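Field log, afternoon session.

UNIT: design team B
ACTIVITY: writing a sequence onto a fixed backbone
BACKBONE:
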């Protein structure tokens, strides 16, 4: 108990000894350090962003994680953005989606893999553009054309009393859809950023084979009229 008490007393004594010197140094500086920081920030705020701020490239980590976890479907995706006045960001996204799914109850299997692309624009609402942090909303048009395989354990023919297989390979399909995007980006170090976004996807037009619908649409998600998605990106300004 006594050594601990002596330790606390020593720390307090040392703090009291050096406090006047720190106070004198701050008074001698006259608070100029804080003033200089405030002036530097004000100078940045008064500057206008460049008309063209460069290009950024990014890669999505969510799809990689889904692939590692052997999800029913996954995708690999990269993107490129142009930067105009730190407000407008024309965007192109390219990805490759795959699925190998088997229904637990039906035993039906669905397989596909194909590329997809999106094109659109983001708008940055952040006023402090010089921080490198961004809060944005955006729109996308997306398209994919793909082939898929479907099969099932088969069914019993009531006439011939034998099992009829049900398997079709290389069926053709395509899909057009739009996306509303909401996202955040934060600067970690110089040209390195991290960001995430959520997407609400709405199917515009589609086609599939008469033999059956695909379970997964590359880039869109599970087959349907609407879908939610998202990405977590590592981003580099170049």
């Amino acid at each position: 108990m006594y050594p601990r008490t002596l330790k606390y007393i020593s720390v307090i004594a040392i703090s009291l000894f050096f406090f006047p010197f720190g106070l004198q140094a701050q008074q001698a500086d006259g608070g100029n350090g804080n003033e200089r920081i405030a002036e530097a920030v004000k100078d940045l705020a008064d500057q206008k962003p460049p008309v063209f701020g460069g290009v950024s490239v990014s890669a999505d980590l969510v799809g990689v994680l889904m692939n590692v976890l052997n999800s029913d479907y996954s995708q690999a995706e990269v993107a490129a953005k142009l930067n105009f006045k730190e407000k407008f960001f024309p965007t192109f996204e390219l990805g490759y989606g795959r699925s190998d799914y088997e229904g637990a109850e039906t035993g039906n299997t669905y397989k596909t893999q194909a590329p997809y692309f999106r094109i659109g624009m983001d708008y940055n609402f952040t006023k402090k553009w010089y921080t490198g942090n961004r809060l944005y909303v955006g729109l996308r048009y997306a398209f994919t054309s793909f082939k898929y395989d479907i099969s099932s354990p088969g069914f019993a023919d009531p006439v011939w009393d034998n099992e009829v297989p049900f398997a079709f390979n290389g069926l053709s399909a395509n899909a057009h859809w739009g996306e509303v995007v909401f996202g955040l980006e934060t600067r970690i170090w110089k040209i390195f950023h991290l960001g995430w976004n959520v997407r609400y996807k709405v199917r515009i037009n589609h086609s599939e084979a008469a033999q059956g619908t695909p379970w997964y649409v590359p880039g869109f998600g599970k087959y349907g009229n609407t879908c939610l998605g998202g990405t977590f990106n590592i981003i580099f300004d170049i």
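LOG NOTE: The CA atoms of residues 100 and 111 lie 5 Å apart.
NEXT ACTIVITY: expression trials, pending approval
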